[in-house]
Amino acid sequence: LGHGSGGRLSAELIGRVLVPALGAVGPAGPLEDAALVEVDAAALALSTDAYVVDPLFFPGGDIGAIAVHGTVNDLAMRAAMPVALTVAYIVEEGLPLDVLRRVAASVGDAAAAAGVPVVSGDTKVVGRGAADQIFVTTAGLGRRLPGAAPSAARARPGDAILLSGLIGCHGVTVLSCREGLGFEADVVSDTRPLHRLVAAMMAAGGEGVHALRDPTRGGLASSLNEIATASGTGAEIEESALPVPEPVRAACELLGLDPVHVANEGCLVAFVAADRADAVLAAMRARPEGAGAVRIGTATAAGPVVVRTAVGSRRVLDMLLGEQLPRIC
Amino acid sequence: MQGVGFRPFVHRIATELDLDGVVRNVGGDVLIEVGGTETAVARLVGALRARAPAAADVREITVGPAPATPAPGFRVVASAGAGVPAGFAGLPADLATCDDCLRELFDPADRRYRYPFVNCTACGPRATIVDDLPYDRVRTAMAGFTMCPSCAAEYHDPADRRFHAEPVACPRCGPRLTWREGGHTAEGERALTAAACAVAAGRIVALKGLGGYQLVCDATAPAAVARLRERKHRPRKPFAVMVRDAGVDPGVRAVLASPARPIVLLPAAVCPGLAPAVAPGLDRTGLFLPCTPLHHLLLGLLRRPLVVTSGNRADEPIAVDDADAAERLAGIADGFLGHDRPVRARYDDSVLQMIDGAPRLVRRARGYAPRPLDLPVATPRPLLAAGAQLKHTFTLARGGRALVGPHGGDLADADALAAFRATAAQLGRLHRFEAEVIAHDLHPDYLSTAYARQAAPESRRIGVQHHHAHVASCAAENGLDGPFLGVAYDGLGLGDDGRLWGGEVLLATYTGFRRLGRFGTAPLPGGEAAVRRPARMALGCLYGAEFPLPPGPEPALLGRLPAPEVSLVRRMIERGVRSPRASSAGRFLDAAAGLLGLCDDAGYEGEAAILLEVAAHRATGDPVPLPWRITRRDGLWVYDWSGTLDALLLRQACGEGAEALAAAVHRTVVDMTVALCARAAEQTGVTVVCLSGGCLQNRILAGGLTAGLRAAGLTALLNRDVPANDGGISYGQAAIAAARLAEGI
Ligand SMILES: [Fe+3]
Ligand SMILES: [Mg+2]
Ligand SMILES: [Zn+2]
Ligand SMILES: [Zn+2]
After folding, report:
1. How far is the CA of B523 from the centre of ligand 2 (A)?
2. Which site from B286, B509, B655, B695 is most exposed, i.e. has the minimal number of CB atoms within 10 Å?
3. How far apart are CA B214 and CA B318, in angstroms?
4. Where is the active site (chain B) (predicted)?
C-alpha cells in the first residue's frame, strides 16, 4: 500500500476498496466533503476527517487548528453552518504533555473563533511507534442553509470558476518547516474557517452557487478534476489569473512543484452560474477571508481540465498519482 | 498500396508487351490476369519489381495459372467496393512533386504552368486529403472540385500518367491560392507574389502546406528569424530550412530528394549564410527540398533559404483548419497564404539524420506515416498501442502489420491530446479497425496511460515497460526473432520496480525482459525541474550519487550557481525531498554538460545532451578517456561513474577545455557500454545488441557503440524507420503486446 498525497492513488483506494466494502449502507453518488442528512425534516450535514501533519506546529497554524478548520470547511462546502464538533486524539506514548496541551488549546481557540462548540471527544494513548506523535480526528454536524446545497455534481458548462484567495501557502509552509528548507520565513499557512464566507456567497448567489470545494490535499488541480468528473463537465483556467504569492512561486520553482498541486487549508473554489458570478464575487471580496477572490476560469462542456498558459497554449491539468514523477523522457 | 500509380504502370508495360488482360486492386493486393507469350509474361513479372514507380513497395509476387484466357486488350478495372483490407493497405503517404510535374510547372506552354496544385499518379497529396477508403477522388478533399473536360480526359485514360490521379486539377477546375494580410487580399499568382514580397521584406508568412500550416520567413535575415522565435515562444529549438538544392554526397542527396522529402540534419557548412538564430549553438542544420509545387514556386521567387516551421505556438500541434489557423497564428504571422483544398489529416514534416551509413528517422510524419510496418509476431487481436507522453505517436496493429500514426507532440498540450484521440479515431474509421486490446506505458501519469485506462478495462490492457518498448522497437523493425540484448539509453522512463530508469542493459524477447545492467543512480532535485535545468542535475550527481564522488577541488559549477540554490538543492538531496533517483544515461550526459558549463538551463528537450555532442565534435585529436568501473549490485552490472566525473572535474580544474572533456565523456560511455555488453553476451550467450532510446540519436554514441560492439564480435542494430526517441515507443509496445497475445501471456 503506497500512501498518496491526495492524488489519484487515494481516490482509487476509496473508490475501489473502501466504498464498495460498505455495500448497501455506503454513500451513493459522488463523494462529497460532507454528507447531507435529514433528521425529522431538519436539513443537516455531517462530516469527519482525520488529521496527520508533520510538523505539528508551523507558521500560521498547527494540527489542532487544521483539525477544526478542515471539518468546519467540509461542512461549509455543502452550505452548512457548523453546529457542533467532536474531537478524538490518538497520542503516542512519550509525547510531552506540553505538546498535547498546546494542541488541545489550539482546538479550543479555533472552535471558539469559528463559533462552534466541541461537544464530545475521546483520547487513546498508544505505544511508541504505533502513532506519530499525535493524530486528531474531528467530526462536525452542520445546519444547512435553505435551498439546494452546492454539490460537486452540480457544476454546469458556462459556470464561472471563482477562487477565494491565494493558493499554495499551506503546503509550502509545512514542507519547508518539516525539511528545514527556509521558505517558512516568507510564507505562512492559510488555515482558517470558511463558513462565514460561504454564508455570504449563498446570500448573494443562492442556488446559482453550484459547486464548492476547498482544495486541500492534491491542491486546486484535484478539486477542479473532482468537480469536473462528478459533473461531467470540463474546465478552462487562466494561468495568469491564479493568485500565487511570489515566495510560493519561487519556492515551487526550486522544488519542482506546480502551485496548483499544493495543499491549502483556507481557500475554496466555486463553480457559480454565470449570471450570479459578479454578485458572488463581490460578496466574497467583502469578507476578509475572500478579499483576494478572483475569477480564474470557466466550466466547459466536456474534455479535460485545461490551463491556458501565458504563452497562449492549453495544458492539460491532470490529477497526479501520489508523488509527482517526471513525465519527461 | 493505393495512390502510387501502380495500375497505370502495369497497363503501360502490358500494352508495350502486347499482353491481354486486366489489372485490379483486391483488398490490399494488386491482381493481374494476363494472356500472351511466356516470354512476354516473364518480362512483365520482371518489370513489376525492376521498373515499379518510386513510391511503390513491391513485397511479394506470386505467379500462377489464370482461370481463363482473357479477352483481347489490356484494361484497368476500378477498385472493388469498400472491402475490409487484411492489413492496412490502401492509405498511401504523401509524395513530393515528381520531375514530370515539375517540368510542366515551369513550362510556359503547359496548361498547368505555375499552377501550385499540379500532381499526377507519381506525386501529390494522399494521406492528408483522404476521407475514406478505397482511395478514390469522391472520398477525398478533392470531392468538391468538379474536373474540367481536359482533366477528366487525363483521369480516365489508362495510358495517361494522370489516370486515376485522385487529386488531379488545373487552373480551370482546381484549388486556388489566396493571400490575406491585414485588409489586403489577393488570389492566384498575385497571392503568391504578395506572399513572396512579404517574406522578402522580412515578414512572417503562414503557409498552408500539405499536412497543416507552416510558418515561413527569410532564413538569412536575423531580424526576421528573431521575430519568429519571439512570437512563436520558441527561444532556442532549431528551425528547419528549405533550400532549392544542397551540395551533399549522392547518398544523402538521394534521401533529401526522395518522394518523402524529409528534413535531413546536415552539417551547417552545407548551407552557409543563415542567420545564427536558425540553430543557435549547433553544428548542424535541418535542411529539406521543396515538396509541393507551391513550395517550389515560392522558393523560385525568393531564391534564398527559407525557415519553414510548423504553424503553432510552443508545443501545440500544427494548425490544420483555416479558421483555427487564422486565430491561433494571428499573433505570429503577418500574412496568410492559403487555398481552398482542405487538409484532412495533420502531418508535420518528417526529420531524419544519417547514422552508420543509413537514414534514421527522428520524427516520423509526412511522407512516411501512415505507411505500415511489419510486426515480428502477428497479433491475434487488433490492438492499439498508446505510446508515451512526449514526441507522441500511437500504433494500430492488425495481423502482422503495424500502422504507426504521425508524430503528435507533447500530450500535456490539450490540443495534442485532442489530436491524438481524433487521429486514432480517424485512422480506425478508415481501416474499419476496432482495437480489442490497448497497450500502454507503465507510467501512471502519462496521458496516454490515462487514455488506455479510460478506453479499456484492465482485462484488455497490456502494460509495457518503457525501455523494453524502446529496444523491442529496434528488434522488431530489424526483423529479429530470438532473444536479444537491449541497450536502452534514454532520458527517463518508469521501471517495473517503480523507479526511474534510463541507462539500462536488458536481456529481452518480445514477451519479456530481464535487467542485466544499469547506470549508477543520481537524484533529480525537483524532479522535472532538474530535467529543465541540467545544472541541478549536475548538483544531483555531485551530492547524491549512488557511488559518492571522492572529495576534490571545488567544481567550477559551484562558482557559477547562486549559493542559496546550491544549499537548497543539497538540503533537498540530503532529506530526500522531491528528489527521485534515476539510473539514466540521458541525465548523466545532462549532468556532464552542466559540469562543463555547456548548458545550465535547457531551452528545449535534450538541449544539454545536444550541446555536449556539439562540443565533442569540435574537439581535435583522439579523446583521452576517463576512468570507469563496472560493479555488481543486487545481481546487476552497475556503471559506477563516480571515477568518471571525479577525473572530469580534476582535468577541468587543470584547465582542460570543455570540448576535449565532452569528447572524453562520450568515449568513456562507449567504452564502458561495449565492455558491459561483452560481459552480458558472455553471461547469456546472446550476441545481438539492439540499441535504442533518445540518447541513440547522438551520433557519437550511436556510431561509437555500433563500431565498438562489432569490433567486440557482437551484432549491433539501430532504429531506422521509427525514431530511437519516444516516437518509437508505440511501435515497440505493439510488437510486445502482439507477441504476448500470440503466446497467451
Ligand atoms: Fe524514452
Ligand atoms: Mg472530509
Ligand atoms: Zn507528378
Ligand atoms: Zn482541370
Report:
1. 35
2. B655
3. 8
4. 7, 25
Residue B64: the pLDDT is: 81
Q: Which of B34, B51, B76 is the last residue of a domain?
A: B76
What is the percent of chain B with per-residue pLDDT over 70, rounded to a whole number?
98
Neighbours of ion ligand 3 (CB under 5 A): B 98, 101, 120, 122-123
Cross-chain residue pair B447–A255, CB shorter than 8 Å = no
Percent with pLDDT over 90 in chain B:
82
pLDDT in tens, B186-215: 999 999 999 999 999 999 999 999 999 999
Chain A hits for B447, CB-CB cut-off 8 Å, are 316, 318
- Residues of A with CB below 8 A from B414's CB? 303-304, 306, 314-316
CB contact under 8 A, A328 and B391: no
| Cβ separation B571–A175 shorter than 8 A | no
Candidates 3.20.20.70, 3.50.50.60, 3.40.50.10490, 3.30.1330.10; correct CATH number of A34-144? 3.30.1330.10
The answer, yes or no, to whether residue A267 has pLDDT greater than 60, is yes
Inside any domain, residue B152: no
Mean pLDDT of B626-651: 98
> Containing H/E element for A238?
strand A234-238
Q: In this complex, do A257 and B316 lie within 8 Å of one another by their Cβ atoms?
A: no
* B227 backbone φψ class: left, alpha, beta (φ>0; ψ -120 to 50): alpha
* B119 included as an active-site residue: no
Confidence of residue A16 (pLDDT cuts 50, 70, 90): confident
- How is residue B319 annotated by DSSP? P
Q: Give the pLDDT of residue B75.
A: 87
Q: Does A329 touch chain B (CB under 8 A)?
A: yes
In angstroms, what CA-CA distances link A181 with A219, A262, B501? 21, 16, 28
Domain that holds residue B53: 6-76
Question: For residue B658, how many C-alpha atoms fall within 13 Å in the half-sphere facing its CB?
Answer: 15
Chain A within 8 Å of B528 (Cβ-Cβ)?
yes
**Does the annotation mark B25 as catalytic?**
yes
Q: How close does chain B come to A252, measured CA to CA in Å?
A: 9
Task: Identify the domain boundary among B45, B76, B107.
Answer: B76
CATH of the domain at B197: 3.90.870.30
Residues of B whose CB is below 8 A from A256: 525-530, 578
B-chain CB neighbours of A181 within 8 Å are 568, 571-572, 577
DSSP B130: B
Buried b (16+ CB within 10 A) or exposed e, B611-625: bbbbbbbebeeebeb
Q: Is residue B664 part of a domain?
A: yes
Instruction: Show Cβ contacts of residue B512 under 8 Å, excluding neighbours closer than 6 positions.
Output: B468, B745
Supply the CATH classification number for the domain A160-316.
3.90.650.10
